[in-house]
Amino acid sequence: AAPSARRSPAANPASAAPPTLGAMSDDGSFGRVLRQTSLVATTVVAAGAALTAGAEIYRRSCRVDGESRPQRRKKGLTWAEIAKHDRLDDAWIVINGEVYSVTPWLEDHPGGQFLLLAFAGRDATEPFETIGHSAVARKELRRLHVGTLEVGESAAGQYALPRDAAVVKEHRQRSATLTGGPDFKAEDDDDAPVPLWEVENHGFLPTRDPAPVEALMGTAFEPFVSLVDLLPSLGFTGALRSQLDEDREMQEKLLRCGNPDALVGLTDDQIERAFGVACYVFVAYWRAGTLDYSKGLRGINNGGAPTSAPGGSCAIGGDIDKLPPFLAKPVMLLSRTVGRPPMIDYASSVLYNWTRINKDGPITMSNVRCALRLTGLIDEEWFFKTHVVIESEASHAISAVIAASRTDDESELLTQLVALEEALWRVVRACLPIMYERSEDGTPKCCEHIFYQILRPLIKSGPLTFQGEDSEEPTHLSGPSGAMSSLLPAIDAALGIEMSSEKLREAMAKFKLSMPVKHQEFIDQLVNSPNIRQRIIISRPVGESGNSEHYDSLVSAFNRVIARVLDFRWQHWQYVKNFVMKPGN
Length: 585
Prior knowledge:
Blueprint: H1 30-37, H2 39-61, E1 63-64, E2 67-68, E3 74-77, H3 79-82, E4 86-87, E5 90-95, E6 98-101, H4 113-117, E7 122-123, H5 125-131, H6 135-144, E8 145-149, H7 165-173, H8 222-228, H9 231-237, H10 239-246, H11 248-256, H12 268-287, E9 297-300, E10 306-308, E11 322-323, H13 325-338, H14 346-351, E12 355-356, E13 368-369, H15 378-406, H16 410-431, H17 448-459, E14 462-466, E15 475-477, H18 487-495, H19 502-512, H20 517-527, H21 532-538, H22 548-581
Parallel strand pairs: 3-8, 5-7, 11-14
Antiparallel strand pairs: 1-2, 4-5, 5-6, 6-8, 9-10, 12-13, 14-15
């Protein structure tokens, strides 16, 4: 819709018009775009203040002498009335015909406030039931209940209201369901093998299913296979280090893996699998467990935090500062071969750490499992599998980026921008909320406290010296991070989004070194090519003879992609807040 046909941003922050592309800063800085010209940014800032004040007023109005009191419930609410409540400071949603005011719940929603706001003033039954909310969440709903939908008012009635045409089309046609990821076609024997990390058709997942751990049987790295099978027990308790220190025969076998001859005859798939296996084993040896069980551990309390028995301890296990040669040499050999730092990284814990249960089935949470695990806890499995599904679904976004970057036809560019926005929408709406799913009894499938207290200490960053190498200086190793994913850096480069912070730019450059080499080359290629924003600006019509309508369509499509990228970043930020900041106080 034309800007004049949209609602006033001040009256409806959630549906504010995107910024005008032509007014963007010349350096393409995403930060400057939002600060200088984006109504979306202005709205988020203003609405954030409104949320803080409005939510507090709301809470006070619902309390009498420290006790919560329900709002007056209304019957016969129409879509016309419900649609008015679609703002940060006043948000209603409809679930199964019942109307709820989620305003006081926005800040505490596990999936983030913007996930709720996407359905403010609308029917949210399908996503609510699809994600699978716990009994606790359903009980919370009763406190937020404000009324009932008018009898005879169908879900379709919400679309009869005067809304942004693009938003109406989006809600009518879209479904927050998974596609199953890219099509992994079997290679013919006569075909030349496709490079393992080729980006062309599979996004940033490997071009074929990861090699199983058993693929190392019969190779020089077979000793690592027997060790990685023991990780969920020995790695979790810290017994792996003591066992290896006493097993001289195993040390000799592992040391032979550090000889370059150990790589002779191995395929790229076997080398990648060997790198992941070796990193998981050495990290378990390095960290030697995360919790001290010597005095007992009762488990997790109702709030999710670890609790010790009387006099017990939850202290982090003892790290070492030097890795012995029988592990250091094979790890460093594999590190140099794959071209990545010697540490469990995003590629080895996510991109190449899955196997399909049904080999012909889709990449979904129920059909993939992790090949390597440090603890054996379902929380670890769920955390990393969620990222596998995110990367799988994001492959459609990367396909659109590739097509948009290669075409010289403006109509095709518009088509690919629409496809890119659609793919990012699906990632944000269908994939990111998976992390917060709960079991039928209300238990989170990935508890933030278990992640923070048990898994994170194992994979955290830290200094380590690799004995037997030319340099005895400690190397600072970065644990697996979403910042090592190539997804957003590639999209940023294609769109022309630049990092405005020098400190963040340096951090991202370091994380980039942990990406597969093919991914780094792909991003560099995008960075060194004309970005989509520049190409749209060049196509701006001059005078009355130009095709302003087509240009306006490109601008609108581009800005919708920018908004979706912002949406992705807001949602992913909730991961950091919920799994690191909150449990870490």
